[in-house]
Amino acid sequence: MKLFEKASFLEKRNLPFALVTITGFCGVVPRQTGRMLVTETGECFGSVGGGEIERRARREALDALKRGENRVVEIETDIGKVSMVIDVASKKRRAVIVGYGHVGRAIFNLLFGIGFSIDIVDVNEVDEERAENIYRKENAKAGLLMANIDCFTCVIVTTQFDEELSKVLDECDAFYVGFLASRSRAVLSNKSFFVPMGYDIGAEKPEEIAVSVCAEILMAENKRSGRSISSESRKSIIVRGTGDIATAVIIRLHNAGYNVLGVDLDKPTQIRRNVSFAEAMYEGSVTVSGVEARKITDIKQRFALWDKRIVPILSDENLSCLPDVKPLVVVDAIIAKKNLGTNRKMAPLTIALGPGFYAGRDVDVVIETSRGHELAMIIKEGEAKPNTGIPGIIEGHGKDRVVRAHTSGSWKGIKTFGDEVKKGETIAYIGEEKVEATIDGIIRGMLHDGLEVTSGFKVADIDPRGLSVSWWQPSDKARAIAGAVLEVVDSFFFIEHM
To answer: Are 214 and 118 in contact, with CB atoms under 8 Å apart?
Structure first.
């Protein structure tokens, strides 16, 4: 069969292949032009020169097929070099359908239409030219044993649920195994199987069932949530503030699958910058605990970042983005010890961290932020403990572990996070004036260089526990508060979607 005839034959059956084309050469080479088609089984049609060049081109093509990616390669010999382009015609997508009745045929038509090559396992005769392989064995188990199921394959069983068949599929590498069975069978089957298969869309006709099943297959293949796109796009949360506690909240919500937008001042004055998304305002992007946050200048940019599982950070002190985002949840995590404008009209659910808010009046829920037995308590009526103005006590140190500016001027740190310091040691300058450590310990917080400060402004934080502290991670306090916020948000969405 000629090269393009073979390509047409494979395309009609949705079978993957790669086309290798010579694009350039130098020196002495077997061929200066040429094409070669390579199938996933390694079969070749056409030629790019024969010998070692062709063998290496074949290996590159097979690897490109396996990875599903095009590539440019150069193959050198002792006397010449050939440049080639490898085009992968389609990615490998296979389906094995057990049973070719009304439902099996409807699923076949849909999967074939979106690019799956299909094998059919059925004891009856099947008149289907588009099928790659038809296994007419004495039972489905025997047919499946011949089907060469791999991680690019989905298996759809439309016949009666069979324990022996289930055992055969237990050990296979298929990315999806679904049974058209009753709900009672779900308990008996492998927990990774889709039993009964398909989404609950009220499907009754074979064509409707096929839509339900094929959508679930695509969800499994692409590793997506399978949830409604419209509901997901509305499942957005705004967190006011991007400091260390706010960042822990954003990370917890982000990792739970929510679309989170962080908003803050254009130049935040956060001192625990190494665990704060506030740094994105200065650096453009920052990663904390494996989660990346990136500054945006247009609210529309949030969608592209959410799709990439990146947290967008916007400079928006007055929350002017609210009408565009229409969030279902607003979390005030500024920790200003007073309300800077957050109210219950902003979203169906509003949460505030710390004092300055009354749950049930200003916001829906308040989270306690004071250390102690009540830390992270969820308050649905009332308020958090009042601000004492004294930081939490750590190894006997409270107020003295916070370094405050003694004059006004431009801040410049000479120590950084994790540095050990002694009381009285110079850690920074305000203008020409030295700033000294207030206690022995390690630097855990340090203001961003270049900021203008006034006398009494908090500029650094020293932890007396020294190097035993995981200063590069969000604190236990921040994580506890974040967990409480997630509990409130999860319960809200659960009730909303019941």
So the answer is: no
